[in-house]
Each structure stands twice: as C-alpha cells, then as structure tokens.
Amino acid sequence: MSETKEKMFKGGGFLVEDVSAEDVLTPEDFTDEHEMIAKTTEEYVKNEVWPVSENLENHEFDKSVDLLNKAGELGLLGADVPEEYGGLELDKISSSLITEKMSLAGGFSISHGAHVGIGSLPIVFFGNEDQKQKYLPALATGEKLAAYALTEPGSGSDALGAKTTAKLNEAGTHYILNGEKQWITNSAFADVFVVYAKIDGDKFTAFIVEREFPGVSTGAEEKKMGIKASSTRTLILEDAEVPVENVLGEIGRGHIIAFNILNVGRYKLAIGGVGGAKRAIEVATQYANERKQFNTPISQFRLIQEKLASVATNTYANESAVYRTVGLFEQRLGNLSKEQLNEGNEVAKSIAEYAIECSMNKYMATELLDFAVDEAVQIHGGYGFMQEYEVERMYRDSRINRIFEGTNEINRMIVPGTFMKKAMKGELPLLQKAQGLQEELMTMMPEQVDDEPLEQEFYLLKNAKKIGLLSAGISAQKYGEKLEQEQELLVNIADMAAEIYNMESAILRTQKSIDNVGLDKSEQKLLYTQVYVEEAFNRIEAHAKETLIASDSGDSLRMMLGALRKLTRHDPINVIEKKRQIAASIIDADKYVV
Amino acid sequence: MNIFVLMKKTFDTEEKIQINGGVIEEDGAEFIINPYDEYAIEEAIKIRDDHGGEVTVVTVGNEESEKQLRTALAMGADKAVLINTEDDLEESDQYSTVRILEAYFEDQEVDIILAGNVAIDKASGQVGPRLADKLDIPYVTTITNLEIDGDTANIVRDVEGDEEKIETSLPLLVTCQQGLNEPRYPSLPGIMKAKKKPLEELEIDDLDLDEDDVEAKTETVEVFLPPEKEAGKVLEGETDDQVKELVSLLKSEAKVL
C-alpha cells in the first residue's frame, strides 16, 4: 500500500545528514484505503464505544470484551498479524491510523492498544511457528485477548530487576513461575499474558502464560486517576505451571523482546498522543465557538486563539515527526523477506534501529497531549472541571502517558545514550562531525537568508543541528564516560535532538506539500512550520547555553558562547501575528486543520 | 438477482458551504456517499445476501467519485460503474442524469434498482422516479421496509410520518428513506477486497450519447446562501397585547401577512 523507497535511513541519522522531502512519509501521502481504514475506525469508536463510555468508566469490563470482539469482526485487531495466521497483514501506516483514531475512545484505546500492541506483537515478532499457529488466529479476531506483564512492585524503570522466577520442574515439562506482575492492562479479561521471569534467578526470559494455567490469578481492580475504562490488576503467579513450549524467544534473551516491544509501544503511544491532541483541539474549539462571555464567543478573544494556535502548532510538528517514524518502520520492516520476518532477531534489529526516534516521539507527543488537554480544560473554564464534559476525562486520561512505556525521563536518557553507542560503533559519524564543526565555527559568519518560503526554516534547522552537535560534543569532551551521570545535560541533549527531529519533519512535510499542491494550499502548514521552528529554535538555544555553561569555563566557554551567538543570529518572525492567522482557520473549521 | 444502486457523492454533512463567483466552492471539500444512498447500498447488500445475485453500484460523476464507489465496494457491493461526465458536461441537471442512466440501463438485465430518497445537496428527489418512468417499471419512493418474495415486493413507505403498505412486482425501482436499515461501515477485510473488485469507467460516448442528448433542461439563475439567522424576539406583556404585537410584526417586519 505504501510506495517502496530505495534509500534506507539510519536511526538517529537525521542529526548528521540532510533528508529530502520526498524521502519522508507525510499524512498527505495516505492513500484512499488508508483514509477508509481511518474512517472505519473512527465510526467504530463513535458508534460502538462512545455509547457505552460511561459503562466502561464504571469498570463494566464485559463491555470491553464485547467491544474488542466487535473490533475483531471489523478487522481492527488483525492489522499487524500476518495473513497466514488469520490477520490482515496491513502496512504500518494502516495500523498507525487505527491507533490514532482509536485514541478517540478514551481509556478503551488502552485496552485495544495493549491487546494489539504489547500483548500480541511479542508473539507476532518472536513466536515460533507453533506458538503463532496456536495463538495468533484467536488474537486477530478477538476470540482471545492479550496482555503484557513486565512491571513488578519493585521494578519499574529497572525492568531487568524483576523478581519473578521460573524453574523447570523435575519432569522437564513445565516451568514453575512465582511472582507478582503489577499494573497489568486488560488483566480483568485477558486470556493470554506475555510474562517475563528469570529462569534460575538470572536468565531473563519471556513466557506465554494462559489465564487457565494452574497457579495463575489476578488481584483486585486498581483505583486509578485516569484511563478508568481500562482494566488494571496485578497478575499473581503462584507455582504457575507454564509448559516449556511456551517459552517465547530464547532463554535468557527476554530483554530483546521486552525492549523492542517497548519501542513499538512508544511510537504507538506517540500516535495516540497526536490523535488525542487533535481531539482536544476539536472539543476546545467547539466549546470556544459556542461559549459566549461579554456577548462574544470566547474564540474571538486573542488569548483563547493563542492557546488553540500553540497547541495546533505543536500538534502539526509532532504529527509530522510521528508519521515520519512510521514511514521509517514501514520501509525497514516492509523490506524484510518472509523468512527474515519469521526470524525474531532480524525484526528486533529493524525495530531497534529506530530506538532514538521512538523515544523522542514518545516524550514529545505525550507532553504535547498533556499540554493540549490542559489548555482544553482551561478554555472550558469551570465547565472543564465538570465530568459532563469530555475534556475532564481527557485531562485525567492523559497523565499516564508520560509515565508508562518507559517514563519520559527514562526515554530522554535513552536518546543521548543510543547516539553515543551508535557513534562508538561507527554507525553514525557524530564524533567526526562534531570535530569538524568546532573548526568551522572559528571562521563562521552568519548567512543571509532569502525570503523564499521555508528558506529561513531550513537555515535555522541547519544551525540547530550544529548547535546540538556542538553542545553534545563539548559535554562529551568534558565528561567523557561520566556524562552518563550528568542527567540534566543528557536531558538537554535529548530535548535538542527531539526538537530538531520535529522541526525537520514539519519543514519537510510542508516542503512536500508545497511541491505537490502549491503554496496556496499549503498556507496553514507553512504557518505552523514557521511558528514551530522559531519557537523550537529558541528553546534549543536555551538548552545549548545551559549545557555549554555546565560543561566548559573560562576563555574556552566564552568562545563557545560566541559561536552559539553566531549560530542563533537570525531575524525572528512575528509569532503573535502568525498564531492569530493559524487560529482563524481552526476556529472557522471548528477543528484542527492543516 | 440483478441488483443495482444509484449513488451520488455529496458534500460531507459537516462541510461548510462557501460560494465563490456564483458557484459552490468544491475545492478542498470532503465528499461522502449521499447518506440516503447508503441506505440503498445497505439494502442492496442485504437483498443479495438473502436472495443471491450481484450488487452493482452506478454513479454519474467525475474522477473523484471513485472514492465513494470504492467505499460502496468495501461495504460489500460486487461491482461499480462510474459514468464519468467530467470532460463532456459542464452543466447537468436531473434530466441529464436520467438520460445517461436510461442509456446505461438499456443494456442491463434489472430486477431491482435502489436509490436514495433524495440527495442531500440539491434534494430534487427526481432521478429515481424519472428513471423508472423511462425504463417503464414501477417505482415506490421513501421506503422504510422491503420484503421480496419471488417476483413480489411488499413495501412499507413513509408518507409524511404515516405508513403506507404497498405490494408490487419486480422489476422495480425504490428510493430509500431513513429507518429502512442501519448502514454498515466497511470492515478492514472489506476495504482490502474492494481494491480487487471491478470498477468500470464509462463516458457518455460509450453509451452512444453525445453532449446535445444530455444537455441540461434547467438553468441555474442564482446560487445564494440562506440569510444568517438573526436573534429571536421575546414578546412581553398581556397575552392580548402580545398577540396584537405579533400580528403587527408579522405584517410590518416579517411581511408574511
């Protein structure tokens, strides 16, 4: 369904190489089939899920099961499952659109996401032939429902510190699992759990555990701040008997599965974040257009407009970045042969390639979502605090996104860490680029920029990459291997990288749109891009300054700050004016528009 | 059974209508299957599932209509026919559409044709009945229930909120009203299968028609938006006074008396 692309892009490569507009996937590239799949998902949510929202919020989980079965009938559970195992084997764009539209369903989207994502994918990617034959057809139709059990009371971010044990029984037929897995989504009704335990206390291994196995039970339903429509319980394993053929992947290699499934989970959460942000803009805009104060619809007030425009601008950048990552996955996984796809290690390698992008998308898009729902509540005023309004639930549901699937802090740590590993392995020429840059900066003069659309944005992007490399390079020089301890600096580097990825994705998407349909029809996109790039660039400058000051001193620091000033010199655009224009289109359309 | 559906694409119901130079601005607008035609498609699929046969969805439109035809195929129709008038017709009306459809149906074996009761854009409700007349088959409009037994059709139609029961025979044309059924949305397997289903594209040439044959009989004099709704007025005082004031306002301001 997607066009095949010849060039393969390295994960993290965006920081050191230039990418052209035709090489990135943008939402404007979706085909009619993609649109239809999105529409079916949206109608499913509106016709099936919304009428029972209240029931789901009240923990009537038999409704969740019915809904998942209905989703199965429509094919909404089988997108990522190969055809030979009863799935639809759609491309990653289709499954991403399902995820995005499913975010309209509130907490139920978490039930759906846990089933099709972290619940089913470990078997899709890492199951052996027998396991796939046995489980996938039922998972693709919803006849059986899945859950994922990694977290324990004592091990959250430190997932490998799990205490659950597995021991082969004397007959050699079963592993006996003991331990508690905490906060397991879908646990009220899931039939199949992917569980991690340590064999003989040290070999971290994944197992497929059925609810019906002896010794498997669940605890009481948790009382949560949000996503109440999804079931969350403890999975209790008391001498649970798991047949040896239910070991998933290799013994002692469970972390490969765990980390790669998390990567996928992360970009899917990011897509959900973008979908949720769009919904937040929609409900806030509709409210602002209806609500009158001082005899004026409040959407006519400029501060309300500013809020809508700011959220929409960030949504555009994140949407561009997230679908760019989807395109990278589609390209890489789409190019694997059937044999390679059946070989867990090949799949793992392909997914791991974009660990940086997945993490960046996760923290950026989930923070976008929190920002969006926060402003949406604010626009609703006191009504936003009342449960009759959808936005109240959205606000509560949003918060967990910054915590699960790796906290945003952990994800930020992953980004510079992975960059360093790739640089050390010679996969990315980061060190060479950074060194070349320091020499270049001594003689560099600010450039003149033309008035052509996006000219300034491309220039700022180029300089942002230099600023990012400079800051990372200087801090690496100063701290060497101890940089790992300087978490504040690592976060700055992670933020700069993510801003750069978002900026570039927005610029390329807008460029592609201008190339394809002309400037007239790309006005809104251009406005979003101009505003995002200007604001992101300023944030990058602040991060860089802080990083340099913490990494250097004396004359050398003064020189670096001088270089930073040269790199940041530009004629700033009138952000306020542009945001008013952005808001005008949103208010007119009653929703997020591009 | 040979089951046909007449389908039209219309503006999305959420779309804002804008007029530019006396024409409705279509640029960037979202189009959907006319909602009443969705009832027709759904009913056609049900008839096929119960009685066997084949559902063919026919539209007179342009290149872009393919999207709505694919949606109909994804819902479960078997074949689609696009009669593309984009290059041949600048202006068309119900006469043009009926003339084209008449030519198309000349070569078809028909048991039943289903259409929407009206299209939500121009809302003439003419195409179905006029086509039936040309094809010399019976027609029943605004149906809310349909049962077919052999050559007999038992129909309930909506008459301004009341029901009328009709028995008639096939071949037959019906137009569908809200309440007839609950149109399904396409499943993902349906969407994937739709890609491989036949979609035939014809031009009026292929139907042995030329532009003069289908020239519109009506002329659009003016296109304008309804006036913006103004704030209402609440009359106060004694009932008698209110009535007097109301009558005088109806005469002087609203000028309806």
TrEMBL record, chain A:
Q: Which cofactor does it need?
A: FAD
What residue stretches are annotated with the Acyl-CoA oxidase/dehydrogenase middle domain? 147-239
* Domain Acyl-CoA dehydrogenase/oxidase N-terminal span(s) in chain numbering: 31-143
Catalytic activity reported = a 2,3-saturated acyl-CoA + A = a 2,3-dehydroacyl-CoA + AH2
Q: What domain of life does the native source organism fall in?
A: Bacteria
Q: Which residues form the Acyl-CoA dehydrogenase-like C-terminal domain?
A: 463-566
Taxonomic source organism: Tenuibacillus multivorans
One of its Pfam families is: Acyl-CoA_dh_N
Tell me yes or no: is Phosphoprotein among this UniProt entry's keywords: no
Q: Per its record, how is this protein called by name?
A: Acyl-CoA dehydrogenase
TrEMBL record, chain B:
Single Gene Ontology MF annotation: electron transfer activity
Gene Ontology biological process terms, A to Z: carboxylic acid catabolic process
Ranges for domain Electron transfer flavoprotein alpha/beta-subunit N-terminal: 21-211
Keyword annotations for this protein, in alphabetical order, are: Electron transport, Transport
Which InterPro entries does the record match to this protein? Answer: ET-Flavoprotein_bsu_CS, ETF_a/b_N, ETF_b, ETF_beta_N, Rossmann-like_a/b/a_fold
Gene Ontology cellular component annotations, sorted alphabetically: cytosol
Which superkingdom is the protein from?
Answer: Bacteria
SUPFAM superfamilies, sorted: Adenine nucleotide alpha hydrolases-like (SSF52402)
What cofactors are annotated for this protein? AMP
User: Which SMART domains does the UniProt entry name for this protein?
Assistant: ETF
User: What subunit structure does UniProt give?
Assistant: Heterodimer of an alpha and a beta subunit.
Q: Return the similarity comment.
A: Belongs to the ETF beta-subunit/FixA family.
Protein name as catalogued: Electron transfer flavoprotein subunit beta
